Amino acid sequence: MDKEYASYTTVDQKWVAQIPSHWEMKRLKGVFAMRKERNNPIQTDFILSLTAKQGVVPYAEKEGTGGNKPKDDLTQYNICRENDLLVNCMNVVSGAAGVSKYYGAISPVYYAFYPREDENIWYYHYIFRLITFQRSLIGLGKGILMHESDEGVLTSVRMRISMNYLGNVMLPIPPREEQDQIVKYLDWKVSEVNRLIAVKKKQVSAYKELRKAVIDQGILHGFRESEKKDSGVYWLGEIPATWEVLPLKRICRANASIADIVKTKDDSELVTFLPMENVTETGEIDCSIKKTIAEVRTGFSSFAKGDVVVAKITPCFENGKGACLDDLDTDIGFGTTEFINLRTSDKVLSEYLYMITMTRPFRKLGEEVMTGSAGQKRVSVNYIKNFTLGIPNVEEQKSILAEIERRLVQIDKAIEIERGNIKNLQELKARIISDAVTGKIDVRSVDIPEYEYIEDQSDEEDIETEEQED
Fold first, then answer.
1. Neighbours of 87 (CB within 10 A)
2. Which of 202, 241, 247, 317 would disulfide-bridge 388, Cβ 3.0–4.6 Å?
């Protein structure tokens, strides 16, 4: 059973109610000084980036597409030194804080803190990475919280907290030797939990690959034992003998117009609007956004109920973004021009066509022929029109879809179980950190065994980081 301290003092902060009696509470500005070194004249061209997911990394190693490009004028940057605690004043409420292992140039929106006295910087790193602490800062910022995921992760945040406010935030201050022991204890315990999370995430990844394999098997070759024939398609091989080998342009129309339908509508009528983010990578769609016909008549791509939409821009195409609009709650809709819409003929069911676009060969071969600049490549309509594979009759399509659904339901249940386990482990990790950094448990006498240090391999969507002052 975890040991508590002998006595506590009430501090009544949003994220901590009490601390051990011999600890102190100090304002952040009393614990840290803010480094105010400009990169002018230029001292370094090694640009650092700070994200909630990765912490402090060289800009070249930054994952994702959030944030702006680095400035051309290196004199506009500040200097960060090794072991500085970096805090993004725009995104700190989402966990954009971390200790730098590098000397480099940083965006002006990053605060670089260093201890005024003898402090263990990693103890404070754990505080800044704690969700309850991050949430306690929300009232200090000016801006908008754009989105909070189902898992409680804030994304696309723009909430600037000035140093005047952040400097007055109260922090618990244990004696230095206790800080050291707390950090050792948390490095050990957090590594244990991270190891378990990594195992669960590998299992989720394995289930996702199995999910793709089921779709490929059903759509490309079917599930029945039957007479085969050579498809004549180099990557496809043999298919059931009764299937027709057809390009998609023989079974659907790409970017078909709905102009005739729109003409019958009143400009004030509401229709579904689909931005890219309202389509998930598993084909689910959010139809809650509505716009009037007048708002979307020009400048947006159109689609009708029953169409299939496919993202054409990388990485959305590569990640499998697309949807079957059978469940559209209006008869027509509009959306980003980065969608290609496919309208079925009587040779193919909408859901079956959608499953074709979800096969790995469709996505992989599409990636190989994308054109455009790096990061903004697009798959062409002609690629989709000419994608060729075996097509069964509609009755067999229904049978294949039913079997795919049966198998995917089982796989999706397994994925949800593992995701639940991951969420529980993440909550356990947060509780361990909170209990240690607030002194709810006394770890001074805990013997730390030898262990493998395992970093947090979070795969949550990363918050955007702003590389310029607003």
1. 25
2. 247
Segment among 5-19, 134-148, 168-182, 217-231 with least mean pLDDT: 134-148
CA distance 113 to 125: 11
Residue 356, strand partner residues: none
pTM, to two decimals: 0.83
- Please state which of the ranges 170-174, 300-304, 378-382 shows the lowest mean pLDDT: 300-304
Measure the CA–CA gap between 122 and 186, rounded to whole angstroms. 10
* 19 in Cβ contact with 438 (< 8 Å): yes
User: Number of C-alpha atoms within 13 angstroms, CB side, residue 331?
Assistant: 7
Those residues whose C-beta lies under 8 Å from the C-beta of residue 95, and which sit 6 or more positions away, are 52, 128, 129, 131, 134, 154, 463
CA distances from 456 to 21, 55, 162, 196, 381 (A): 32, 10, 29, 11, 40
Q: Are 305 and 328 in contact (CB under 8 A)?
A: yes
Tally of CB atoms within 10 A around 344: 20
* Crossing angle (nearest 10°) for helices 350-357 and 360-368: 50
Give, as one character, the DSSP assignment of residue 300. Answer: S
Task: Give the helix/strand (H/E) hosting 163.
Answer: helix 163-166
Decide if pLDDT at 151 tops 80.
no
Which two three-digit tokens encode residue 272?
């579904």
- Cβ pair 233, 391 in contact under 8 A: no
Q: Are 258 and 302 in contact (CB under 8 A)?
A: yes
Which one-letter amino acid corresponds to residue 193?
A: V
Q: Decide: helix, strand or coil at residue 34.
A: strand
**374: Cβ contacts below 8 Å, ≥ 6 apart:** none
19/47 Cα distance (integer angstroms): 39
